[in-house]
Amino acid sequence: MITRKSLPRRMFLRGMGTAVALPFLDAMAPAMSNSRVTGKPPVRMAFVYVPNGIDMRNWTPAEDGPLPVELPRILKPLEPLRKDITVLSNLTHNNGRALLDGAGDHGRCCGAYLTGVQPRKTYVDIKCGISMDQIVANSIGSQTRFPSLEVGMEDARQAGDCDSGYSCAYTNNLAWRSETQPLPPVLDPRAMFERLFGDGAELTPEQRARRTRFRRSILDFVSEDTKKLQGNLGPTDKRKLDEYLSSIREIERQLEKAEKDNAQINPGMSKPYGVPADFAEHFRLMTDMITVAFAADLTRVVTFLVTREGSSRAYREIGIPDGHHPLTHHMNKPDMMEKVAQINTYHTKQLSAWLQKLKGTKEGDGSVLDNSMIIYGAGLSDGNRHTHEDLPTLMIGRGGNNWIKSERRVTYRRETPMSNLFLTMMDRMGVKDIEHFGDASGRLNGLDLA
Question: Is 263 helix (H, G, I), strand (E, B) or coil?
Answer without folding.
Answer: helix
